[in-house]
Amino acid sequence: MNEAFDIVSCDENQESQKKLYTLIERGEGVLFVGSGSSIRLKYPSWEVVLRKLAEKITVDVIKEIIEAKISEGELLLAAEIKSNIDSMEYNSAFETFFGPKDPTHDDFHKLLVSVRFKGFVSTNYDPVIECALKEIQKPTADYGVVISEKFKSKVHYFLNSIVHNTDWNSRFHLYLHGKYNNPSSTILSYGDYVEKYNLRDIREKEELYEKLVGGKLSIADFELQSRLKEQSFRTLHYKAIYMLFSSQRLVFTGFGLRDDFLKKIIDDIKEDFAPQETNHFAIMSNNHSKDWTRYDYLREKKEWESKGVELVFFNDDKEYGGIVKFFQGLSQKSFLSDPIQPDHPISETNTISELEISEDKQEDESVNSKILANTRKIAEEIKRK
């Protein structure tokens, strides 16, 4: 680390950390868990997965192209490898890569889900967070929600739960990019992103008009393509993530904020609403910024704050011990005081009363509980069908 500047101890970072801790203590956050948490259990990186898939290709020319793309860091394009592999073989391999391990999770994941977060979100394919939830909540319940047209009612159920749920022992994990045992829902390649987010051929009208005038585009095509930008908001993935990012306060951990498609949604929200203050937090290791000066830090901090994300840095080491200490540093009020045991009914272990709430708010939450109970009933009926 640059000895002239301690990024973790500086006043600005300490102030950001204080605000984050207050958010968590009040139970107002949704945790966005990145692949960093899965590496602890030896799940493969994106690059490793692509190299293993490349071994299944028998055509040398295609294999060489894929290897070149991986070496150049163009992983989204390299991931198009899936179109050259038998679907059943691909699905089997994907489940092998990201299926449950033994153990399914560790003490760190249990620590994460013991924090008073309203819900959990990830772009990971593995069930680590879901399995951790099953340990401290009701083990027989299904806490995983996949964004898919087939399960869109459950997606609505998840979004409703983080708004109205007052039962801290009944929280859910949303798989943004699919789950290991549901290959059709997974987002791995550039083509998958285009399909799920519907961001195909988003071009300015001026560019389209030039092609129209040049005779390269019909009037019908011009009218259709000029509306594609508007249509990009209509896919289930885009709408669910847009609603989540614009209405909730997310806390990112183990996630590098490098996903261009998610960053685009953050930019869209900035353009649509022009937020005046930060809504989200990103917990970042200082290892990625060890050579920063104070100017570098303030510039990066300001850039992300303009997008509604406040950076909070922590001291880390190669064994990932820093992030454990960071969460252990939360106040006792930030944790569930009595996680449900297998033989306890959920209604007997509701810990919401620990929050300091007014009588009016208690009455509102009683109504919200009834709404949520009705939503659960509907979801169960849909599930049985």
Quick synopsis:
The chain is of the alpha/beta class. It contains 18 helices and seven strands.
| Overall outline | globular
Strand order of the largest sheet: 3-4-2-1-5-6-7
Mind describing the biggest β-sheet? Answer: 7 strands, parallel
- What is the chains' assembly state? single chain
SSE topology string: HEHHHHHHEHEHEHHHHHEHEHEHH
Number of helices: 18
What share of the residues lie within helices? 40-55%
Radius of gyration: 22 Å
Strand content: 5-15%
Runs with pLDDT <50, length 5+?
A: 200-206, 341-379, 381-385
End-to-end Cα distance, whole Å, is 57 Å
The computed structural class is: alpha/beta
What's the pLDDT, averaged over the residues? 80
SS elements, strand count: 7
What do these coordinates show?
The chain is of the alpha/beta class and 385 residues long. It is 48% helix and 8% strand. The protein contains 18 helices and 7 strands. It has helices at 11-25, 36-39, 46-54, 60-71, 75-78, 87-98, 107-114, 128-136, 152-164, 190-197, 205-213, 219-225, 228-231, 236-247, 260-273, 294-305, 321-328, 359-384, and strands at 29-33, 120-122, 144-146, 173-175, 249-253, 280-285, 309-314. Strands 3-4-2-1-5-6-7 form a 7-stranded parallel β-sheet, with helices on both faces.
Write the layout of secondary structure elements.
Elements: H1 11-25, E1 29-33, H2 36-39, H3 46-54, H4 60-71, H5 75-78, H6 87-98, H7 107-114, E2 120-122, H8 128-136, E3 144-146, H9 152-164, E4 173-175, H10 190-197, H11 205-213, H12 219-225, H13 228-231, H14 236-247, E5 249-253, H15 260-273, E6 280-285, H16 294-305, E7 309-314, H17 321-328, H18 359-384
Parallel strand pairs: 1-2, 1-5, 2-4, 3-4, 5-6, 6-7
